[in-house]
Q: What sequence folds into this?
């Protein structure tokens, strides 16, 4: 169970860190979330590259590369292990525009 919780926390932290205006590219909130998930799904090297250079995010935004199913992985794993629904919040929310520091002027 700790692995599921740890994964959920790391996923939320990564998505939260990518929740910044320089990546937004005028996407809808949902499209921006799913696109950030795609960056995380590709792996640490790409994630770090995007954090260092926002232009690396551009192909994800312009080509609408999404990884929405990644968002449901902790919920599915929890249910598979326990037979119950996931009823837990992570430390960071990954909803678009929730990182107030990333959207400050």
A:
């Amino acid at each position: 169970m700790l692995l599921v919780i740890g994964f959920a926390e790391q996923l939320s932290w990564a998505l939260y860190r990518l929740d910044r205006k320089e990546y937004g590219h005028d996407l809808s909130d949902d499209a921006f979330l799913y696109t950030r998930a795609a960056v995380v799904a590709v792996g640490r090297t790409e994630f770090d590259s995007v954090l260092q250079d926002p232009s690396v995010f551009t192909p994800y935004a312009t080509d609408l590369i999404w990884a929405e199913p990644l968002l449901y992985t902790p919920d599915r794993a929890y249910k598979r292990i326990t037979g119950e629904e996931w009823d837990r919040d992570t430390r960071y929310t990954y909803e678009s525009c929730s990182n107030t520091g990333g959207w400050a002027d």
Summary: The two ends are 40 Å apart (CA to CA). The chain is about 60% helix and 0% strand.
